[in-house]
Amino acid sequence: IAGEDGEIDLQDFKKALNVKESFFAERFFTLFDSDGSGTITLQELREALTLLIHGNPMDKLKFLFQVYDVDGKGSLGGEGQGRRMCPGAGPHWTSSPLGTGNGSIDPDELRTVLQSCLLYSTWSACPGGAAFQTERQIHKRENAAHWLTAPAARPRPRRPRPLTSAYWHNHRSQLLCLAAYVGLHVLLFALAANAHRALGPSVMVAKGCGQCLNFDCSFIAVLMLRRCLTWLRATWLAQVLPLDQNIQFHQLMGYVVVGLSLVHTVAHVVNFALQAQSDTSPFRFWELLLTTRPGIGWVHGLASPTGVALLLLLLLMFACSSPCVRRSGYFEVFYWTHLSYLAMWLLLILHGPNFWKWLLVPGILFFLEKAFGLTVSRMAALSIVEVNLLPSKVTHLLIKRPPLFHYRPGDYLYLNIPTIARYEWHPFTISSAPEQKDTIWLHIRSQGQWTNRLYEFFKASDPVDCGPKMLSRSLTMRRSQRMPQVSEMSSENHQFCNIKCYIDGPYGTSTRRIFASEHAVLIGAGIGITPFASILQSIIHRHQKRKHICPRCQHSWMDGVQDEDMKLHKVDFIWINRDQRSFEWFVSLLTNLEMEQAAETQEDRFLELHMYMTSALGKNDMKAIGLQMALDLLAKKEKKDSITGLQTRTQPGRPDWSKVFQKVAAEKKGKVQVFFCGSPALAKVLKGHCEQFSFRFFQENF
User: Fold this and answer.
1) Of residues 269 and 448, which shows the higher confidence score?
2) How far is CA 473 from CA 181, 397, 495, in A?
3) Given 244, 285, 365, 658, which is the most exposed site by the fewest CB atoms within 10 A?
């Protein structure tokens, strides 16, 4: 950008920082321009950055003070303005006689700076100045503050993750099952190949792969028996088997089936080509491959035609199961092509003489579960009694709870709404507590085709079969007295409905382990809070059940005996959101949690909340220091956070996971287990940190 002259002016400086709001760019430019020439040379920039990186704390504080000491002027420029570096005496700041500051910061100057801070963050001040609300999203910009930090030290070379003890500690059940799976395939292949060694190498390979496919094509369905897996979670096998990774193992077996099928096919093609070339065979190559004339197979010579059909059907299922199909608005393509497993099983029975033996037990279990689930889910239609449209396109559904619907905190169900899509079933976490008897709550983020249609349907002014009766404030108050509110919305976003729906479930997840943990760390990213909302509500109910109040003196105390299935000593709840409005989803729930622990000291509190807003500039960003100081002072004065209204202070930026887990480890409340629901990218980061601290890590996965 500097060009041949090696200097940049103010406009070039703004271009380099890629900023639209010019206040901080102008302030930095003025202070870096030590000779007041209106341009910055490489030498001036190097001297300024050397001071800011290697200078003492007082030098850095003086620089920050000068950024804020603007004398009420929103922009600076002109010859002679700024601060000068003293040549030859080492880097330190001295006041320029032509500088714009007067050595003190008054309220008008502070207001000017805070307004610029707000423009860089996702907040804007309300007229009263006591609260902040999101009005727009600011595009990501290059951050000038990263200039002001020292280069990070290069990390020391570490052993590969699979070779660490922490990795084995977190993945031992998966690795043992994977080793057993590989060993079983080697054994099956060897036995089948050895039995046909007299027929040549190509037949040995084909028969070996075929025997492995007998196991894979029958057992792959067992991994999707959700009711059986939910039942297993209540047994000791949950400590041995990696039940939380059933979908990953299902996908792995799908890849293995495709690979073995291709090898199996190629081996048979080679064998047919050799037979067609020999003088003893009366059949040509294409007859061996595509017709029943050679009589290959145990049912009317159908082995070859069914093999070709199976390979084509398998490749179609494999292509339509890719993430680019499922997550790009074509879920129906994935769903309907995946139903062809019924045709595949029929073709496999005709293709191989022994497959029906392998399928017998898994097939009976599979069809029993499917028949039971279909009967229960379609037995009677349920009513969506109320709908709340929440910020960030989240739909909050209240569904009438069936009488025999028993679930545990963190469970999920499959939902079908014929008005939206007659044949589509989608999984959603139950966000209400099991102790809530009347309704089931679901919070659904609009992220795909079906969820967007759901949101737009209820957003319409006159949806079909839905009477848009607006809730009055008195009705809202009566409802809040009947059950604890989790969502807090204005009345125009409430609707009474009578839409019919069907549910299938409930099904268990890894969150069932939470109450059996000693120290649980719950991490939700965005709408990933929903499984933990159910758990936190259940904690409130259990806490209230143990709490007693003397009717005379109003003294309160807790029963020393906890539930048999609850071993928790401490819960750390971490919620990470992009913007401020997302906190409105469950702010009332979090308020109730704080009120339940209001009488306890910080050290004795059973539950600790941690809130983060990633779109806000962090406290280590020079452009946000003033704003964060103002928010800290305001929170201290009003005893509540200006963003959420909670007592817990919302932290700007992303969590420093090393510090978070160091603090958790230092508390020594028992064995730590981390439960996460959110994006896979963040899950990978958290898993790495958990391995460093030898914490068990569980990810919501269904």
Assistant:
1) 269
2) 60, 19, 13
3) 658
Residue 297 has which token pair?
Answer: 């197979």
Neighbours of 415 (CB within 10 A): 26
DSSP three-state, residue 555? coil
Q: Which pLDDT belongs to residue 255?
A: 93
Q: What mean pLDDT comes out for the span 130-145?
A: 33
Contact 24, 40 (CB under 8 A): no
How crowded is residue 201: how many other Cβ atoms within 10 Å of its Cβ? Answer: 13
Q: What angle do CA 23, 29, 35 make, to 5 degrees?
A: 145
Supply the Cα-derived Rg of the chain in whole angstroms.
32
For residues 275 and 202, what is the distance between their CA atoms, to the nearest angstrom?
11
The sign of the torsion formed by the CA atoms of 306, 310, 316, 320 equals positive
User: CA angle 501-584-444, nearest 5°?
Assistant: 25
pTM confidence score:
0.70
Return the H-helix or E-strand segment holding 567.
none
DSSP β-bridge partners for residue 548: 557
Average pLDDT (572-597) is 80
Chain centroid, CA 587 distance in Å: 19
| CA distance linking residue 372 with residue 377, whole number of Å | 8
Let me know: does 114 contact 607? Beta carbons within 8 Å. Answer: no
Choice between 526 and 99, residue whose per-residue pLDDT is larger: 526
Q: Which of 526, 355, 504, 393 is nearest to 440 (CA)?
A: 504
388, containing H or E segment:
strand 382-390
- Structure token digits, residue 682: 């963040």
Phi, psi of 318 (to 5 degrees): -65, -45
Residue 368 scores a pLDDT above 70: yes
**E strand or H helix at 259, and its extent?**
helix 246-277
Q: Is the pLDDT of residue 68 over 60?
A: yes
Interatomic CA distance for residues 154 and 157, integer angstroms: 9
Is pLDDT at 490 greater than 50 in this prediction?
A: no
b vs e for 8-27, b when ≥16 Cβ sit within 10 Å of the residue's Cβ? bbbebbbeebebebbbbbbb
Q: What angle do CA 323, 329, 333 make, to 5 degrees?
A: 70
Tokens of 321: 């199961």
Smallest Cα–Cα separation from 100: which of 82, 84, 79, 78? 82
**Among 87, 82, 112, residue whose Cα is nearest residue 99:** 82
Nearest CA to 445 out of 550, 582, 347, 546 is that of 582
Q: How far apart are CA 64 and CA 628, in angstroms?
A: 14
DSSP classification of residue 393? T
DSSP letter for 106, please: -
The Cβ-side half-sphere exposure at 416, using a 13 Å CA radius, reads 14
10 Å CB burial of residue 159 (0-12, 13-18, 19+) is exposed
487, 585 contact by CB (below 8 A):
yes
N-to-C CA span, the chain: 50
Annotate 142-206 with DSSP letters as a single string: --GGGGGSPPPPPPPP---GGGSHHHHHHHHHHHHHHHHHHHHHHHHHHHHHHHTGGG-HHHHHH
